[in-house]
Amino acid sequence: MNAEIDIRGVKLYTPRLTLREWDMSDLEDFFEYASVKGVGEMAGWSAHKNTEETQEILNSFIEQKKTFAIVYNNKVIGSIGVEKYDEEILPEFHHKKGREIGYVLSKDYWGQGLMPEAVKEVIRWLFENKELDFIVCGHFDENIQSQKVQEKCGFTHYRRKKFDTRYGDVKHGWLSILER
Fold this sequence. Notes:
Elements: E1 11-13, E2 18-20, H1 27-34, H2 51-64, E3 67-72, E4 75-83, E5 98-105, H3 114-128, E6 134-140, H4 144-152, E7 156-164, E8 170-179
Parallel strand pairs: 5-6
Antiparallel strand pairs: 1-2, 2-3, 3-4, 4-5, 6-8, 7-8
């Protein structure tokens, strides 16, 4: 079953990063990385066309209280969302508490080990503070970077899946799982 998540007031720290709630002042940093071709597409959404589109998504991050901003050197460079997983495709977990995570990182910071660092801290928080039993994470077949992040964080492939993207495509990939 999907556990309730509310990150209001939560701040997590790693040696290089701060993970925190989003704030209205994050708009320019968010647009800067979300408007770059190839960033969002790796996660199933199109590059942002204008700051109005980014503002709408930022508003939802703030209202829904389930997405961490990843801050590096006082700049927001990505996000980690703690989403509801699809209980219909994983009925075998109905008696356990879980969630799905998704993440995106500015292209300028790829290959520096920042995303595994951030994901590991969110995993720690979810298991220790929210007492989840499992976490699900997915990646498209062509998104090798995301697959590597998941492997570094202890996830293992669990089931093949078709993902419907926000731009109307269907992508094939893996649903991976990490149990406490």
